[in-house]
Design brief:
- By secondary structure, the chain is an alpha+beta fold.
- Helices cover 37% and strands 26% of the residues.
- The strands form two sheets. A three-stranded mixed beta sheet has the order 4-3-5, covered by helices on one side. It has a two-stranded antiparallel ribbon with strand order 1-2.
């Protein structure tokens, strides 16, 4: 899994990839990757961000349109990290920096 930080013009500013093991479902892996991307964006000093991903189930859970008890701890962690940003949005499909 990995993440890419782009500016509003699409120019790559930073990126990283890694391997996550021990996740039971694709959704757990996607949540882990999102947490990793959020933490990376914060540690690099970005405060206005848009996160995009391609997993509709995770997107729905983040938008509170769906409940998934298996993902609850991941979602709590993601919500806690949101407070570290001035402006954070989550969209479905492809992470941009404003």
């Amino acid at each position: 899994m990995g993440w890419i930080i782009r500016n509003k013009y699409g120019i790559v500013l930073d990126c990283e990839m890694g391997r996550f093991e021990g996740r039971s479902t694709v959704e757990e892996g996607e949540c882990t990757a999102l947490i990793w991307a959020i933490q990376a964006a914060y540690s690099l000093g970005y405060k206005k961000v848009i996160f995009e991903g391609d997993n509709i189930q995770v997107t729905r859970c983040l938008q509170a349109a769906s409940i998934n008890l298996r993902l609850e701890n991941y979602l709590i962690t993601i919500s806690a990290w949101k407070s570290h940003f001035h402006n954070i949005r989550g969209l479905q499909i492809p992470v941009h920096i404003c």
